[in-house]
């Protein structure tokens, strides 16, 4: 089983979904570390309660020294023999050098159907745009924020009387299904990148699309 670090900044519900999936003996990855850049991240308690090693590397303490922050995180990864990074509501932008070091081995979940709505406030922006479909994306992390090759997407309808929180909850339920599936593909070695696109082998015609 590949050793994965889940990186969080807050609630950690996607991390919890990864932990739950990894409890299955056939799952190709284990969550060997949950690391937060904030000591007050609620998700840390959830991980500790399940006996998962946790670490806090407070980004605040590095006063804008992003490279120093990343070196400190990588010391934790080295201690735990981490092979794959899963960003799970991790709200820090990483340096190009760090992204390059983890190229092909770091994934992110984003709450929109990329390339629509990169960045923050995705649900409010989807409502304002009047789109009828919204959703979530798991992608490999590259230097451009929210721009890496797409591994998997799930779509949800946007309803006429939706609120931001109702839409967020509908998307989040899909995130919790999508992220464990996509991490499993990466950990099992089913993912390769060709011409900037991620190809997933062995999961059938609808690879990457959980509609
Ligand atoms: C999730 O919706 C995730 O997609 C989003 O933050 C939320 C974290 O929730 N990520 C981003 O916006 C990344 N830019 P969680 O902590 O409960 O997993």
Characterization of the model:
This protein is of the alpha/beta class. The chain is built from 6 helices and 9 strands; from the N terminus they run βαβαβαβαβαββαββ. The strands form 2 sheets. It has a 7-stranded mixed sheet with strand order 3-2-1-4-5-6-7, with helices on both faces. The protein has a two-stranded antiparallel ribbon with strand order 8-9. A hairpin with a 2-residue loop joins β8 and β9 (197-200). α1 (13-22) runs parallel beside α6. The longest helix is centred in the C-terminal third of the chain and has 24 residues, at 164-187. The two termini are 28 Å apart. The mean pLDDT is 96. Glycinamide ribonucleotide is lined by residues 8, 10-14, 88-89, 109-111, 172, 175.
List SSEs in N-to-C order.
EHEHEHEHEHEEHEE
Q: What is the gyration radius calculated from CA atoms?
A: 17 Å
Backbone structural class:
alpha/beta
Please give the order of strands in the largest beta sheet.
3-2-1-4-5-6-7
Number of DSSP strands?
A: 9
Residues in β-strands, percent: 15-25%
User: Separation of termini?
Assistant: 28 Å
Q: Which hetero compounds are present in the coordinates? A: glycinamide ribonucleotide
Given the C-alpha coordinates, what overall shape results?
globular
Note the quaternary state here.
Answer: single chain
Helix content: 25-40%
Uncertain parts: none
GO biological process, one term: 'de novo' IMP biosynthetic process
Catalytic activity: N(1)-(5-phospho-beta-D-ribosyl)glycinamide + (6R)-10-formyltetrahydrofolate = N(2)-formyl-N(1)-(5-phospho-beta-D-ribosyl)glycinamide + (6S)-5,6,7,8-tetrahydrofolate + H(+)
Keywords: Purine biosynthesis, Transferase
Binding site for (6R)-10-formyltetrahydrofolate: 66, 108
């Amino acid at each position: 089983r590949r050793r994965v670090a889940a990186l969080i900044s807050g609630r950690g519900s996607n991390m919890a979904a990864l932990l739950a999936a990894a409890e299955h003996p056939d799952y190709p990855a284990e969550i060997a570390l949950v690391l937060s850049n904030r000591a007050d991240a609620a998700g840390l308690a959830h991980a500790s309660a399940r006996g998962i090693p946790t670490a806090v590397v407070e980004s605040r303490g590095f006063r804008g020294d992003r490279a120093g922050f990343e070196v400190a995180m990588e010391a934790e990864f080295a201690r735990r023999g981490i092979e794959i990074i899963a960003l799970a509501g991790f709200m820090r932008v990483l340096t190009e050098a760090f992204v390059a070091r983890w190229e092909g081995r770091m994934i992110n979940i984003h709450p929109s159907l990329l390339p629509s709505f990169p960045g923050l406030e995705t649900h409010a922006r989807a409502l304002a745009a009047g789109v009828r479909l919204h959703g979530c994306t798991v992608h490999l992390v590259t230097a451009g924020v929210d721009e890496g090759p797409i591994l998997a997407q799930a779509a949800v309808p946007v309803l006429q009387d939706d609120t931001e929180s109702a839409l967020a909850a509908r998307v989040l339920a899909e995130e919790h299904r999508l992220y464990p599936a996509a991490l499993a593909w990466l950990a099992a070695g089913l993912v390769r990148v060709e011409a900037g696109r991620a190809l997933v082998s062995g999961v059938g015609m609808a690879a990457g699309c959980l509609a």
